[in-house]
Task: structure prediction
Amino acid sequence: MSKIQMKTPLVEMDGDEMTRVIWQMIKDKLILPYVDLKTEYYDLGLVHRNETNDQVTIDSAEATKKYGVAVKCATITPNAQRMTEYDLKEMWKSPNGTIRAILDGTVFRKPILVKGITPYIPTWTKPITIARHAYGDIYKNTELKAAQGSKAELVITDPDGTETRALIHEFKNSDGIVQGVHNTDKSISSFARACFNYALDAGENLWFAAKDTISKTYDHRFKDIFAEIYENEYKDKFAAKGIEYFYTLIDDVVARVIRSEGGFIWACKNYDGDVMSDMLATAYGSLGLMTSVLVSPDGKYEYEAAHGTVTRHYYNHLKGEKTSTNPIATIFAWSGALRKRGEMDGLPELMHYADALEKASIQTMEDGIMDKNLSAMSTLPDKRVVYTEEFLDEIAKRIVL
Ligand code: NAP
Ligand code: MG
Result:
């Protein structure tokens, strides 16, 4: 059998711990037998990030801008304990944060649905994709305590020195607290475009919500920017695709989401996305089945699993024990990236291979073959818990091109 040829390389970002081990297995067992894989390889493992003073992370993001599609393995975000464990020169920043900032991207998380894993909301028969605006609001705030008797004001100083002031509160009877938050039209616009592009790509409706009835300037600005961009740039494209953009209030959207059957994209302001993405991930069941893709406003894509490096399993692996780790979300990162590469380069065989890989992965789990954590949740009558390597072998057996 001749292997599927690629045109443009995929940016490959290797990572850490258990997911790094799985990364190699996925390539060896599931991809290389079928695809003449062309990647530009960046080792984002913590050892190499430390050696390059994190330059490798920046280089990998720049490469993504150049080639348009990347696939990323989970990586360690260092903390104090990792400083010692890896003898780090510095507490390097989260690679995901660095890449997101360089690509100006939005993260879309989407669950994989399989028979036997029923969401806590059983009417959710289709995936709900959530997008979080990852800039500003309370995540870039300025906070102060205010003593009783003080007065808090909001002041904006124009370039010419003109001041505009507004009273926040006079703390007449009590001490208190004050918070200043901001966002930028530029960031909100990038977020809006990433969401509209993703919806067109997925062929699904886009929902966005804020609290513009209460926040008449701040949240209203989000609503207006989305509306303007939609009217001017996307309305016709949405109509041609037969999909809709829909704005409502955040509390109304929560009610609608719960009552829905899924199958749409939910764009969230920063805080709403922080909270609701955890709610959705839990409700759909398993971290091992949650995929994630970073999309830039100019249409660059970086695919990954939503989970981390699965440290506990890795420590067992180092002790020579076999692990039962779920490779599915990492496999879908690869299939997502290869499909997108195929779409951009006009390679239907590559897109077909990505479909076949996903189908085989789902079939394996629906045949009852899965890792220990998933098995504990699955309601299938006949289940077989397998080690990581065997899980991949079972998937490989089911790939039909
Ligand atoms: P985690 O790696 O997602 O693992 C948390 C727990 O969830 C695991 O211990 C395991 O539970 C279960 N789990 C997650 N993925 C699984 C899978 N594929 N198969 C089976 N079980 C799975 O999160 P964490 O422990 O908070 O973080 C570990 C490291 O990952 C940290 O250094 C963190 O910085 C990094 N991280 C990276 C990313 C990223 O690169 N995108 C995201 C999150 C975290 P049991 O142990 O109970 O089996
Ligand atoms: Mg959160």
